[in-house]
Amino acid sequence: MKKIYVKEEWCLGCHLCEFECAYANSGIGNIVLALKDKEIDPNVKVLSDGKITFAVSCRHCDEPLCISACISGALSKDETGAVMVDKSKCVGCGSCVMVCPYGAVRITKEGTANKCQLCMNNTFGEPLCVKKCPNGAIVFEEK
Amino acid sequence: MKKYVLIGGSIATEGAIEGILSADKSADITVICGEKRPLYSRPLISYVLEKKTTDEKLYFRGEDYYEKKGVKKVFATAEKIDPEKKIVCAEGLEYPYDELLVATGSKPFVPLIKGLEGVSKKHTFYTMDDMIGLRGDLEKGGKVLIVGAGLIGMKCAEGVKEYGCEIVIADMAPRPLPAATTPEAGRIVQDRLSAIIDFRLNAALDHFDGDKAVFASGEEVDFDILVLALGVRPQVGLLKEIGAEVNRGILVNEKMQTTLPHIYAAGDVVESYEAVSGDKRLLQLFPSAYLGGKTAGKNMAGEESLFLTDIPMNATNLFGIRITSAGLFVGEKTEVTVGEDYRALYAEDGVIKGFILIGDSARAGILTDFIRKKRPIGEKDKKELLAGRDFALYPAEERKAALGGNYEI
Amino acid sequence: MIDYNVAPFEVVRDYDKCVNCRVCERQCSNEVHHYEEGFGKMISDSTKCVDCQRCVCLCPTKALKILPNQNAFRPNANWQQKYLTEIYKQAESGGVLLSSMGNPEPFPVYFDKILINASQVTNPSIDPLREPMETRVFLGAKPQTMQRDREGKILPKLPPRLKLSMPVMFSAMSYGSISYNAHAALARAAEKLGIYYNTGEGGLHKDFYKYSANTIVQVASGRFGVHKDYLEDGAAIEIKIGQGAKPGIGGHLPGAKIVGDVSKTRMIPEGSDAVSPAPHHDIYSIEDLRQLVYSIKEATEYKKPVIVKIAAVHNVAAIASGIARSGADIIAIDGFRGGTGAAPTRIRDNVGIPIELALGSVDQRLREENIRDNVSLVVAGSIRSSADVVKAICLGADAVYIGSASLVAMGCHLCRTCNYGKCNWGIATQRPDLVKRLNPDIAAERLINMLTAWNHEIQEMMGGMGINSIEALRGNRLMLRGVGLNERELAVLGIKHAGEV
Question: Which member of B38, C193, C249, C387 has the greatest number of CB atoms within 10 A?
Answer without folding.
Answer: C193
